Amino acid sequence: MSVILSAATFLPPFSPSWILAALLFISAFFFLRRPPKRKIRIPSPPTLPLIGNLHQLGPLAHRSMRTLSAKHGPVMLLYFGPIPTVVVSSPAAAEDVMKTNDHAFSSRPDTSLADRLFYGARDIALSKYGEYWRRVRRICVVHLLSPKRVHSFRFVRAEEASRLVSTVRCACAASSPVNVTELISAFTCDVLCRVLFGKKGEGGGRAELSLHTHVVEAVGGSFPMRDFSPWLAWLDWLSGLDAKVKKASSDFDAFVEKILKSEHESDRIIFSDDHDARRTDMVDVLLSLRNDSSDSLSRESIKAVILDMFTAGTDTTNTTIDWAMAELIRHPKTMAKAQEEIRQIVGWKEEVGEETVQGMPYLKAVIKETLRLHPPAPILFPRESMEDARVLGYHVPKGTRMVVNAWAIGRDPASWEEAEEFRPERFLNSKSFDFKGLDFEFIPFGSGRRGCPGIDFAIVTTGLALATLLYHFDWELPEGVKEEEMDMTESPGFSLKRKSNLILVSKPMNH
């Protein structure tokens, strides 16, 4: 008993502060010894050896991905062969990728198609993030696609819109149906030929360049097996893909070289911002910058940028106008409302001016609704993480590929009422969505550092062409074809085109 009492005299008093300090010490000890929190695995469907989830992607990959995401969530891990690829399909997940972690996901993965078609990925869209990409983008934003430069080419768009009207009038006089798909393709190709090369119509090599571009688009929408597993590269040879890629690359290179040598370098123009756009095209601008140490580009880089701008420029306008006209034909009341606005604002003028189009809110809503349902690139260009990041709480390691399903996001029922319906009024009665990628429910041109730099050019060209067609003509389906019977099937490929051509009957408006 005495021993116990003597020991007790050396124990500290059990005051509340002492007890609290002891508890804090014990808690800290066990916390520090606790193993790190386990990283939450991204949901993923079962895979097959060698091919991963490739067998689950049908010809329309954006639809297949949405179906898989409905089961596995808005952040989903797929394996393209052995390559891990995260697919995001919700506005919140897209915001994490293109805003919260924009820098982390600003690079592009290596692909054999980018190397072989775009001169070693020297273009804007596919080059890796770094000093070269920043320089190329700066050149495009400052010298080629600035608001001032876009406005300077208004005469090109106006003249080609006038030619568009003349072509349709000829069809009306002959009582012939109009192939709207081919008509718009010719219009956009002519506009881009003149803006890029300074050559009109057929003289600018429209047919030749259009053919090259279609081949590049078709090949670009394929899945080379060498990108998923090098030892499967022989399948690309066996399928004929290697031969198609080689021919597409050599044909386009020969075409551009001919233009550079015979029509630009032989008669160089020193470019300045005040130079008359009627005598200066974008190739002149690019060649003039070769002596600028800060903004100079190699010859191969110039050709890569030309191909990039032509394919992106024609695709955006072609597909948007074609889908818009198809949707308007299927919704006669909507078309009548759009035409009423256009004709009331334009009045009895012979031409529709670009400045006038800016004051047409319903037409803008039609274009936005078309882009929501039918974005030109349903799956945005893949990104690659340059560092570890988190998307909706999921850990994404460095080097992971990231894919944003813009088509699924535009049809997300959590963001849009009657998401599958064509209702332009939604853009009049709700918050003001823009095209710049600031609203992640609506990202047809992407967002962040890797967003499309040609938005202004694409939208002004689309608006002018669509307003011109709706102002001058009334449109209907050929006799015997009903709206509900229209073929709205999507065509496989990188861009979201309609599978069949849009054939309509036009009637000129009486002035």
From TrEMBL:
Upper taxonomic lineage: Eukaryota, Viridiplantae, Streptophyta, Embryophyta, Tracheophyta
Pfam families associated with the record: p450 (PF00067)
A single GO molecular function term of this UniProt record: iron ion binding
Organism: Zingiber officinale (Ginger)
PROSITE patterns: CYTOCHROME_P450
Superkingdom: Eukaryota
UniProt keyword Oxidoreductase present: yes
Family from the record: Belongs to the cytochrome P450 family.
Name recorded for this polypeptide: Cytochrome P450 71A1
Residue ranges of the TM segments: 15-32
Keyword set, alphabetical order: Heme, Iron, Membrane, Metal-binding, Monooxygenase, Oxidoreductase, Transmembrane, Transmembrane helix
Residues that coordinate or bind heme: C452
Cofactor names: heme
